[in-house]
Amino acid sequence: MTDFCFDIKPLFPEAIIKVSSDLLPQNFSGKRFMCADVTLKMAEVIDRMGQLSATAQDLINPVTTAQRLEKSDNQTVYLMADGKEGANGVVVGLLKVGTKDLYLYDETGQVHKVQRAPAVLDFYVHESRQRCGLGKELFEAMLAEEKWTPSKLSVDRPSQKLILFMARHYGLVRTIPQANHFVLYEGYFHGVSPSMPLLQATKSVPAILAAGSERQRTSAMTFHVGEANYRKRRLQDPQQQSCSTTDLLSSRCNSDCSMAEIIQGSRARGTNASHAADGQISRTNVRHT
Ligand code: ACO
């Protein structure tokens, strides 16, 4: 459990709080002189939870830090606490979301520039509390607050557990292959009219993905300056790097692999990965956001 040397309860007027770049809980009503103390403590909470999340995902660097949140104007961190545990209470979960300008493929292979695409960027529930429904509670609170629906989210290189989470709670399994590390689920483009397609699907999906890869590199430079390499995973034993989504969904795969890697694996084999359930996973793919 994540406890701190200070009482966390004043930071959590409710079990789930929303924190933006000012590092104060939303609707913070304390006096001005209290703000400095609250932001310092909030920074410590965010940094610690971000580090635990990185460790759980085997990331080289944390995705979520107080400094990064402070500098962003389009990211939000949701934190969940249990004020009844211990004298000071404990923090049990973190969910970071934001919006990204992305080049994304629809089901037909056309590329769209989607501005301010809702994205799940980091998600963590303390190991001692996982699979008790807290992740769902936190996720639902975020959806209600942001007024987002699960099938309209892009997910930044989901872990095995998050893939299972999305399937379990939202029935989201089938993905739309992308050239980047974001995973979209079928239905993402239903009922919306994003930008005019930038590229017509006159080639095979692997060829389109290759073209998109180039485009995405450009967009990454345009839209994600200062965030390069922050989601790199540690490379693991290549002997343990391969499993299928079918394995994931039946919890038979022990290696930590992502849907993006499944898609990447499909690209490597030059197959159509429109239904990623058959894709193989390449662990050589590391995240560059
Ligand atoms: N093994 C298999 N499935 C799991 C596991 C696990 N250890 N943990 C969660 N799940 C999935 C399953 O579908 C599970 O349903 P089931 O128990 O009926 O099989 C479901 O999630 C449980 O739902 P909740 O209890 O609501 O979720 P939880 O509180 O466990 O939070 C979370 C889910 C945040 C993914 C958590 O497991 C976690 O912190 N994992 C480690 C960090 C991680 O992988 N984060 C996602 C990184 S990718 C990103 O952030 C974009």
Automatic annotation (TrEMBL):
GO CC aspect terms: microtubule
Record site: Crucial for catalytic activity: Q57
Reaction catalyzed: L-lysyl-[alpha-tubulin] + acetyl-CoA = N(6)-acetyl-L-lysyl-[alpha-tubulin] + CoA + H(+)
Keyword Acyltransferase: yes
InterPro entries: Acyl_CoA_acyltransferase, Atat, GNAT_ATAT
HAMAP family in alphabetical order: mec17 (MF_03130)
Family: Belongs to the acetyltransferase ATAT1 family.
Function field: Specifically acetylates 'Lys-40' in alpha-tubulin on the lumenal side of microtubules. Promotes microtubule destabilization and accelerates microtubule dynamics; this activity may be independent of acetylation activity. Acetylates alpha-tubulin with a slow enzymatic rate, due to a catalytic site that is not optimized for acetyl transfer. Enters the microtubule through each end and diffuses quickly throughout the lumen of microtubules.
Protein name: Alpha-tubulin N-acetyltransferase
Classification lineage: Eukaryota, Metazoa, Ecdysozoa, Arthropoda, Hexapoda
The gene coding this protein: LOC6901295
